[in-house]
Amino acid sequence: MSQLIRAAQFAAYVHHGQTRKYGHSDRPYMTHVIRVAGKTMTVPYCTSTMGCAAWLHDTVEDGKDPDEIKSLILIFFGEDVLDMVLELTNPSKDFPNMPRANRKEMDRNHIAFISKGAKTIKLIDRIDNVREMLDDPETPESFVKLYVPESRLLLDVLRGTNAELEDELESLL
Fold it and tell me: How far, CA to CA in Å, does 115 sit from each of 80, 112, 167?
């Protein structure tokens, strides 16, 4: 079985029963993962590692047992995929009581130094989040007013990765 198919199935297992945030609380979380992975695999420099990491990009953050998920990713997909998934995992997840602004700064500082492949996935992930949020009339305006400026700051550390994706995110913001 293809490693990409296994990654998709593993993501579906981890995200089973989860739904999207914002106003799309009835939409399965996997709809987001499918869009991010699909778009990642159309990038000309996409590798198998990038494709798998795109499928798995939220599994460590959103899974019930992050250590078990990391172990399983290592076993089933290898160190390169695990490394990229960890690049995409916000380090602030370990500090839920830290003020949001501090957590987001911590995450940006981490993202500034990740690989080009991981930065590409992060751009696609943010594009999808912003697009879905802005397309949903039930998204609280207060959250949009918080998320859009955070996304602009994130875009600053992602510059130089993929001009087309950067322009797409900027136009959404």
Answer: 11, 9, 19
Single pTM value for the model = 0.95
Could you tell me which of 152, 135, 153, 133 has the C-alpha nearest to residue 143?
Answer: 133
Superfamily of domain 3-172: Hypothetical protein af1432 (1.10.3210.10)
Torsion of CA 105, 149, 36, 63, to 10 degrees: 50
Q: Degrees (nearest 5) of the Cα angle 14, 121, 55?
A: 25
Separate counts of helices (H) and strands (E) for the chain: 10, 0
Sorted by sequence, the CB contacts under 8 Å of residue 56 that are 6+ apart come out as 7, 10, 11, 73, 77, 81, 85
Phi, psi of 28 (to 5 degrees): -60, 140
**Distance, CA of 90 to CA of 82 (rounded, Å):** 14
Q: How far is CA 47 from CA 40, 69, 113, 115, 153, in A?
A: 9, 22, 19, 13, 27
pLDDT tens digits for 95-126? Answer: 999 999 999 999 999 999 999 999 999 999 99
Give the helix ranges, DSSP H, for 57-140: 59-62, 66-77, 79-88, 100-111, 116-135
